[in-house]
Amino acid sequence: MTLFAPNRRDLLKTTAITAPAILLMPSRLLGAGGAETIFTLGVASGDPWSDGVALWTRLAPQPLQADGGMPRARVPVTWQVAEDEGFRRVVRSGTAFAEPAAAHSVHVDVSGLKPAHAYFYRFIAGGEGSPVGRTRTAPAAHTVVDHLRFCFGSCQKYEAGHYAAWRHLVAEDADLIVFLGDYIYENDPSNDAVRPHLNPEPRDVPGYRVRYATYKLDPLLQAAHAAAPWISTWDDHEVANDYADARDELNGDPATFLKRRAAAYQVYWEHMPLRAAAHPHGASARLYRTLDWGRLAQFQVIDDRQYRGGRACQPPELALKHLQYRVAVEDCADRHDSARTMLGAQQEQWLLDALGTTKATWNLLAQQTLMTPFAMIDPAHPERGATLHPADRWEGYTAARDRIFTRWVEAKTPNPVVLSGDIHAFTADDIRHPAHPDGAPVAAEFVGGSITSTNHHPGWREEAKLNPGIRFAENEVRGYALVDLRQTGADVAFRGLADARDLASPVSTLAHFTVEAGVPGIATATTSKVHVA
Questions:
Q1: 90 pLDDT above the threshold of 80
Q2: Among 68, 46, 390, which Cα is nearest to 231's?
Q3: Environment class of residue 361 by beta-carbon count within 10 Å: exposed (0-12), middle (13-18) or buried (19+)?
Q4: Residue 217: helix, strand or coil by DSSP?
Q5: 3-state secondary structure of 91
Q6: Are 176 and 148 in contact (CB under 8 A)?
């Protein structure tokens, strides 16, 4: 039987009906229990370069079992890349092996493709064809590119809602999708969940595999992966809430936590479209990297979890007694200690070097959490204004943050823009040089909301008003950001759902911003300083 790839609108219609609709052919050879397909988790592509892209799938006829229902044997998997939906013009093909040690996942770094070209891809195993994905390569290095359209988002807690955001995002017809962390959430099933997690909090490889399968079985998430290549990084919930290097939020035993981190990193790799260079080694994995889109843009993708130093301004007894760290702290010298790092010395130097050598018109820092200074109101002393600082964000690592701000200026990095997630809110911000807090902006930052995860922090908009540089803030609406990038400027739209708990929720534009090339910061905004719903 010949497989064909539906276009993006057909994908949306298909996946809106039922999960098995995206699974195109019955399994004949592999797996147990009479499963209808071995490609239950779909396909994905990622990290495109000028002549290639990374392809991914996983064989899992019983995806909610830790072994996916697969035998403990390596399985040959054919992969194909074609110029047409019907695979009449196959331009690259080969055989990869799905190994039981990697949950029978398949990662292929395909090269030898044309720059700036759209392709279709699929996998074949045991006589069964996978769903068909669409991907594209990046323009050649030094090529002048007129336009790039991409979407970015983060924080897709399964229990907090349905993935209507992914349906609308696919309809945006973006060249790229940038995901900034919290692909899964690790918590136990919640009694008040829209749809509860299907297994207890994971702490080992089997547990994390079931958790990823729970998320990746969603047909709208599968459609988003099949529609365009992804650029991905992680935040905390891929492992555990608010972890920092080898410490969890409860300041538990580092050796015990690193075993958990190693399991989480392995399973992240098993389920994401990453290149071979990102393969983990125990509790370590290199995710930081640059990706170029011709001369138009460079994405500097960073990892602010794995290498960060201890949290600032913490009473020493918390670590000694393995107690919960203080989430918000009053100012102290520790926050500003130049020896403290968010990225680790090696990654930070790599980033500073990249910011000094980039030739791209736009430099997009793809990272996890809010960079713009943002202090919080102490509920015990609201009369003091915003005096508390979130220890888990860049606010807890001001010297490391300021080194990046300073580098943009000293290196004359062209048009820096920060893309952020984590806080389950939309913000649009002007970043200023630390030595000139009242001066002109040196960069713009956009936090692209959350796919489903909520932020019901009381008084959050009032706090936003107290923080200079915050041009827009909205914490009660879920969604994503859409960016149209050109040589002369960037257009950024915040796209918000009416209700993320509703599978059929409509989407609308909450706010629209422009950034002009050569003029750091936000040029125009369609909203007042702080949005109030």
A1: yes
A2: 46
A3: buried
A4: coil
A5: strand
A6: yes
User: What pLDDT does 527 receive?
Assistant: 77
Are 171 and 164 spatial neighbours (Cβ–Cβ below 8 Å)?
A: no
Taking all residues of the chain, what is their mean pLDDT, rounded to a whole number?
Answer: 92
Tokens at residue 57, please?
């799938």
Assess contact for 441 and 431: CB atoms under 8 A: yes
| 3-state class (DSSP) for residue 338 | coil
For residue 333, give the DSSP letter: G
Rounded-to-integer distance, Cα 436 and Cα 405, Å: 11
What distance separates the 2 farthest-apart alpha carbons in the chain? 71
* Straight-line distance from the first to the last Cα atom of the chain, in angstroms, rounded to the nearest whole number: 52
| Sequence-distant (≥ 6) Cβ neighbours of residue 118 within 8 angstroms | 134, 135, 136
- Give the separation between CA 196 and CA 215, rounded to whole angstroms: 11
CA–CA gap between residue 199 and residue 394 (Å, rounded): 32
Tokens 């479209």 correspond to 273
Residue written as tokens 């110029």?
Answer: 83
Q: Tokens 């052919």 correspond to what residue?
A: 25
Residue 172: what residue type? Answer: E
Question: Which amino acid, one-letter code, is at 50?
Answer: S
| Neighbouring C-beta atoms of residue 504, cutoff 10 Å | 10
Distance between CA atoms of 121 and 77, rounded to whole angstroms? 13
**DSSP per residue, 356-418:** HH---SEEEEE-SS--S---EE-TT-GGG-EEEEETTSGGG-HHHHHHHHHHHHHTT-SSEEE
In whole angstroms, give the CA distance from residue 494 to residue 483. Answer: 9
| Tens-place pLDDT, residues 294-340 | 999 999 999 999 999 999 999 999 988 888 999 999 999 999 999 99
* CB 181, CB 153: distance < 8 Å: no
- The predicted model scores a pTM of 0.93
Q: Contact, 366 vs 419, CB < 8 A?
A: yes
- Least confident range of 136-145, 376-385, 397-406: 376-385
Provide the CB-side half-sphere exposure for 484 (13 A, CA).
8
Q: CB–CB of 174/230 below 8 Å?
A: no
Helix (H, G, I), strand (E, B) or coil at 10: helix
Q: When comparing pLDDT for 4 and 131, which is higher?
A: 131
Provide the residue type at 52 as one letter: G
Instruction: Kindly state the helix (H) or strand (E) to which residue 260 belongs, with its residue range.
Output: helix 254-271
* Residues contacting residue 446 through CB under 8 Å, at least 6 positions apart: 417, 418, 419, 420, 427, 428, 429, 481, 483, 492, 494, 513
Q: What is the mean pLDDT of residues 476-480?
A: 97
Task: Give the whole-angstrom CA distance, residue 336 versus residue 358.
Answer: 28
